[in-house]
Specification:
heterodimer; A: mainly alpha; MetI-like fold; 2 domains; 13 helices; 80% helix; 0% strand; globular; B: alpha/beta; Rossmann fold; 6-stranded mixed β-sheet; 18 helices
């Protein structure tokens, strides 16, 4: 187990280093000089050069890369060119919207998908199975921003149960959660549809396995065999999808945050790209990559917790 | 009182009839074997007794087990009987256990669902039962840490943990080596005697039946065609199917004599080692030698057998000969040409060798027609035939293996297992290779089909000199189809020589143990 964890940690570190190099390189090759952009079309070349020097753009590439990485390691993400405030402050104000939103959506999608998938698999071909599969088909097909607008129309405009957008801050946690509920549902349902389908097919595969027949021959009922032997085995492919979905929920928040006017990382990155505030883009993307890699690391550890075959490797 | 009394059991699944008027009885403590070829309804009979028929199955008749009619018993009551009154062991020990639970927990589960007892007590009984079935591993092990034979012991422990009155074993040793098979059969016999348990043994292997069973039930196409006490039945076989089955099991092919010829394949001092995972974080890596200084040769037109248990290095050797994998030491040459040059296989040599694999179901792409399947080796040729020449080659190859040229346009699912194996042989023959490797090529076939395929191979040898390496765990097959035999153990060839000599007068203790473990059919009235 220790060896496995160390192995995963090494791979996590390598992924982070490679990701930082790729992000830095991509941002570098994007055409357009941020200094020229900020000063407008009529700026004099020497003013631009002065700004470039101030922003550190005149230094060699590798030096800027190391400065960027070293800064991030100390929590210093640089200063936004447009907001004129430290990027770290910009991020810390917004991450407490995006991260809870993604986690909320993930919990919702799991809470919907697991029972739905297990129920459908246990009643394969029955009315319940057909209904759930039909619903997931719909869930996969509907774009989440459209679904978000429908939610707003029904629950905010007509029923007035929720506000149509905005975020009041974590001063009142109940109110904050409430304002994240509609966005979380909009994000979660399409994901839940996919997850339920994966859960169902994975479980059906397991129910056809020899060890389920063995369990039945021991005297377990169909239900007992399902819960004691099939579900945990079926979790292995489901965990993979879950890990992939988390990154999608984080990044997919960009559109949903726009629809609900949430001050999250998605909105920040959207605005920074429009304003060519590359230092912010760089840092937020790196942060998202970091979160995704950490979640995948957690998924890898979860595999080992579920599957003894991985532990002793 | 009879332990099991099946009267006129019939069964159809959806509309397909599976069983017709099957009747059989068993006394307590008796070993009854059901034998017959695939599709004869052996396993369905067993599943009917367990009340575990697949969906859509409609049974009729009566199955009285220990005074209860299984077919009339509702599911909850059947759940209480399974594991308690009757237990079952299946064929494939590699997949029969839940990979995520310890073996101790899986055996204890049988006890816990039927008995009001504490977890600790159930685990203690489970550990005792694992010891009783001769498992030399702690109950905290997971299935993947055990060998096939060890896993089958766990399955047996699971089935008998509650001392059921009837144990059903469906091909329990078919997936195992001969030596392991002998040990598992001995274990089953011992348990039946000690626990006074009835054993219903389902097997296609008549030699196993003759070895173990008190009574034999022969099934053909869903019907019981003959039944009786083992010795009596073997001496006085009445039904033509029983006789045919027996004749096929003892079938000897008529192999043309091999004339001395120069060497074709030479394997000299070949070693292939794999680094296993480290036990500790920074501990030394011990190398596992799958092949350890292996040397032998096959002459032009010579038929050589290769026997040994699983893990003895047979597959690694096959891969090395085919040039699919580099070796660390030694050299393999075909007609003086190395199979492996530098870091890539030598194509000129590769086209001289073909292979026929064990499983006729998974070794074909189901989306290609037969014509495309059997012409696959053409990609090895510099100038593969096309147009009329290609069609001619396909027709000839199919005719050579006893199929019709019209079969070229069919898909693989339209063929039976035996026909598929003929197609696999056609695929190997189409480039007229110098050497064919048969890797357990007849092991998955029924005895009668196996006899036909072996005859086909002998036939092909008569048409043109054919050199092959015949890998098999079945000594009786190797005996009839090869001139010379190699015996492999732990990556080494421990004995080699003329097949008849090695199999009748084995010198190496390992060969002796292999031969002693192989079940044998007694001479019979039919022969």
């Amino acid at each position: 187990m220790i060896r496995y964890t160390l192995g995963r940690l090494t791979s996590l570190t390598v992924s982070l280093i490679v990701a930082s190099l790729v992000i830095f390189a991509v941002i570098e090759v994007i055409p357009g000089d941020p200094a020229a952009f900020m000063l407008g079309v009529n700026a004099r070349p020497d003013t631009i050069a002065a700004l470039r020097a101030e922003m550190g753009l005149d230094q060699p590439l590798f030096q800027r890369y190391f400065a960027w990485v070293a800064g991030m390691l100390q929590g210093d993400f640089g200063t936004s060119w447009t907001y004129k405030t430290p990027v770290a402050d910009l991020i810390s104000a917004r991450i407490w919207v995006s991260l809870p939103l993604a986690a909320y959506a993930l919990i919702l999608s799991t809470a919907i998908a697991f029972p739905a998938g297990i129920y459908a698999a246990s009643r394969r071909g029955g009315a319940g199975d057909i209904t759930i599969m039909g619903a997931t088909q719909l869930g996969v097909a509907i774009p989440n921003f459209w679904f978000a607008m429908i939610l707003v129309l029904i629950f905010a405009v007509n029923l007035r149960w929720f506000s149509a957008g905005g975020f009041p801050g974590w001063g009142n946690p109940a109110l904050a959660l409430k304002s994240l509920t509609l966005p979380a549902i909009a994000l979660a349902l399409p994901q839940a549809a996919i997850l339920a389908r994966v859960m169902r097919s994975s479980l059906l595969d397991m129910l056809g396995e020899d060890f389920i027949r063995t369990a039945r021959a021991k005297g377990l009922t169909r239900r007992q065999a399902l819960w004691r032997h099939a579900v945990r085995n079926a979790l292995i492919p489901v965990l993979t999808i879950l890990g992939l979905q988390f990154s999608f929920l984080l990044a997919g928040g960009i559109i949903i945050e726009q629809v609900f006017f949430l001050p999250g990382l998605g909105r920040l990155i959207f605005q920074s790209i429009s304003a060519r505030d590359l230092i912010v883009v760089e840092s937020v993307v790196m942060l998202l990559v970091f979160l995704v890699i950490v979640v995948n690391f957690a998924v890898d550890l979860a595999y080992a917790a579920v599957d003894p075959r991985l532990r002793r490797r | 009182m009879k332990l099991l009394d099946i009267k006129n059991l019939s069964l159809r699944i959806n509309t397909a009839p599976i069983l017709h008027n099957v009747s059989l009885t068993m006394q307590p403590g008796e070993i009854t074997a059901i034998t017959g070829e695939s599709g004869s309804g052996k396993s369905m009979t067993a599943l009917a007794i367990m009340g575990l028929l697949p969906q859509g199955a409609v049974p009729g008749g009566q199955i009285m087990l220990d005074g209860t009619d299984i077919l009339q018993t509702p599911e909850p009551a059947l759940c209480k009987m399974r594991g308690n009154t009757m237990g079952m062991v299946f064929q494939e020990p590699m997949t029969a256990l839940n990979p995520l639970q310890t073996i101790g927990a899986q055996v204890a589960e049988t006890i816990l669902i039927h008995e009001k007892t504490t977890k600790a007590q159930a685990h203690a009984s489970a550990a005792a039962m694992l010891q009783r079935v001769g498992l030399d591993q702690p109950p905290s092990r997971y299935p993947h840490e055990l060998s096939g034979g060890q896993r089958q012991r766990v399955c047996i422990a699971m089935a008998i943990a509650r001392h059921p009155k009837l144990l059903i074993a469906d091909e329990p040793t078919t997936a195992l080596d001969v030596t392991t098979q002998a040990r598992i059969l001995a274990l089953l016999r011992g348990i039946v005697r000690d626990f006074d348990m009835g054993l219903l043994l389902i097997t296609h292997d008549l030699a196993v039946v003759a070895d173990v069973a008190d009574r034999i039930v022969v099934m053909e196409k869903g019907r019981v065609v003959e039944t009786g006490p083992t010795q009596h039945l073997l001496q006085n076989m009445q039904h033509p199917y029983t006789r045919a089955l027996f004749a096929a099991s003892t079938h000897r092919v008529d192999l043309p004599a091999h004339k001395a010829a120069p060497p074709l394949l030479t394997v000299r001092g070949v070693t292939r080692a794999y680094p296993p995972s480290r036990k500790t974080l920074l501990g030394p890596r011990h190398r596992f030698k799958a092949l350890d200084d292996v040397s032998f040769h096959i002459d032009h037109g010579e038929r050589v057998g290769l026997v040994g248990e699983s893990g003895s290095g047979k597959s690694t050797l096959t891969r090395a000969i085919l040039g699919l994998e580099a070796v660390q030491q030694g050299q393999i040459t075909l007609d003086g040409q190395p199979v492996f040059t530098g870091h890539k296989p030598n194509i000129a040599v590769r086209r001289q060798m073909q292979v026929v694999f064990q499983d006729p179901y998974s070794s074909f792409n189901p989306r290609h027609r037969v014509a495309r399947l059997i012409t696959e080796p053409f990609h090895l040729l510099e100038n593969p035939p096309n147009g009329a020449a290609r069609d001619r080659a396909i027709a000839n190859a199919l005719r050579d293996v006893g199929l019709s040229p019209d079969d070229a346009n069919k898909y693989i699912h339209e063929f039976s297992g035996g026909q598929r194996q003929r197609i696999a042989i056609a695929r190997a023959l189409i480039v007229q290779p110098e050497l064919i490797i048969f890797d357990e090529a007849v092991s998955a076939l029924d005895v009668s089909v196996r006899a036909q395929v072996l005859d086909l191979i002998a036939d092909l040898c008569r048409k043109r000199p054919l050199a092959y390496l015949f890998i098999s765990h079945d000594l009786s097959v190797v005996r009839s189809i090869t001139d010379r035999v190699l015996v492999m153990q732990a990556g080494k060839i421990v004995e080699q020589g003329a097949t008849e000599t090695v199999l009748t007068r084995p010198r190496h203790p390992y060969t002796q143990s292999l031969i002693a473990a192989a079940p044998r059919l007694p001479a019979t009235g039919a022969a």
